[in-house]
Automatic annotation (TrEMBL):
Catalyzes the ATP-dependent phosphorylation of fructose-l-phosphate to fructose-l,6-bisphosphate. Its EC number is 2.7.1.144. This is Tagatose-6-phosphate kinase. It is an enzyme of class 2 (transferase). Keywords: ATP-binding, Kinase, Lactose metabolism, Nucleotide-binding, Transferase. The keyword Kinase applies. The lineage of its organism: Bacteria, Bacillati, Bacillota, Clostridia, Lachnospirales. PROSITE patterns: PFKB_KINASES_1, PFKB_KINASES_2. GO terms for molecular function: 1-phosphofructokinase activity; ATP binding; tagatose-6-phosphate kinase activity.
């Protein structure tokens, strides 16, 4: 089983409009609500890949209850720690020319008692899992070393851990040696305090991170696919050219597919091909963190994996 951790869950609202005009009253053509916060996208995609998943983290208030209802409706197994603070909303404004603008609420503060309560729950939940993913931001009140703590607990029980976050959470989490991280170019720059100008420098940066005790450093490159750096080799996975509909959540879809790859014991090249296919297929649907199996299977055949 794969456990996904979402410490700052959300109701994701996708607003479809013609064109965003600053300072004007705008009517939304269509609005869809989905359970969000990166980890919930990961959970949904793992389920679509056909693997057993359990979503955990914090939920609170009416919005938290709504997110739980949506997860139950989508048959995504979940076991959250409930807090008094209201779960946030994240808005993705999609214009007819394909532009996407995201507005992410910070999330209400979480108390120390709630953090302690969650950690007790987490310890029990991960006992029956093989792989744990932890994704996204945290709200105020949650220490910036939380992922480092959760990674240490999972590793002590022999679990594989994927961490996908940014800023100081990523910096602190890396110290605990997760099995895999998935920074993008900006996150590598922030983490190492360097500027990366080209693919070679991205690889050099990823190698530095790998040598800090991380088995797989995955760097996602949008339409250019992804790199995987291991102790022994560097791989690149290139998706075919596709006409995207909504790219939000493709990083989460990639994390989900890698978690599935780890769970199934795939070799690194197979894992990369699968992750590129699933994440590229996610860009072909309007819904965040979802893909059609037929898209994924078609793309899978055309992904080019190269050992560099
Ligand atoms: N335009 C695209 N065409 C094909 N595949 C894409 C495209 N955009 C994203 N992907 C796939 O999704 C993966 C993740 O995308 P990206 O690199 O944008 O991640 P990210 O920065 O973490 O994104 P986000 O935070 O929006 O989820 C890519 O490695 C690629 O496989
Ligand atoms: O604040 P976080 O958790 O870092 O990011 C939240 C978020 O933007 O990430 C997802 C896309 O990756 C969206 O579904 C979601 O709302």
């Amino acid at each position: 089983m794969i456990v996904t951790v979402t410490l700052n869950a959300a109701v994701d609202k996708a607003y479809v409009i013609e064109e965003l005009k600053k300072g004007e009253v705008m009517r939304v053509i269509r609005c869809t609500n989905t359970p969000g916060g990166k980890g919930l996208n990961v959970a949904r995609v793992i389920k679509s890949c056909g693997e057993e998943v359990l979503a955990t983290g914090f939920l609170g208030g009416h919005t938290g209850a709504y997110v739980k209802d949506m997860l139950d409706e989508q048959q995504v197994p979940n076991d959250f720690f409930y807090t008094s603070g209201e779960t946030r909303a994240c808005i993705n404004i999609l214009e007819s020319d394909g532009t996407s603008t995201e507005l992410l609420e910070p999330g209400e503060p979480v108390s120390q008692e709630a953090v302690d309560g969650f950690i007790r729950k987490y310890e029990q939940i991960i006992a029956s899992s093989n792989v744990v993913t932890m994704s996204g931001s945290v709200s105020a009140g949650v220490d910036t070393d939380i992922y480092a703590r959760l990674i240490e607990m999972a590793k002590a029980k022999g679990k594989k851990v994927i961490m996908d976050t940014s800023g100081v959470l990523l910096k602190n989490g890396v110290q605990a040696g997760p099995t895999m991280i998935k920074p993008n170019r900006d996150e590598i720059e922030a983490l190492l305090g360097i500027k990366v100008q080209n693919r070679l420098e991205v690889i050099e940066g990823a190698k530095k991170l790998q040598s800090m005790g991380i088995d797989f450093v995955v760097v996602s490159l949008g339409a250019e696919g992804a790199l995987v750096v291991t102790k022994d080799a560097v791989y690149h996975g290139q998706p075919p050219k596709i006409k995207t509909v909504n790219t939000v959540g493709s990083g989460d879809s990639m994390v989900a597919a890698f978690a599935v790859g780890l769970e199934r014991g795939y070799e690194v090249e197979e894992m990369l091909r699968y992750a590129v296919a699933v994440s590229a297929a996610n860009t072909l649907t309007m819904a965040t963190g979802s893909f059609r199996t037929e898209d994924m299977e078609r793309i899978y055949k055309d992904v080019v994996v190269t050992r560099l």
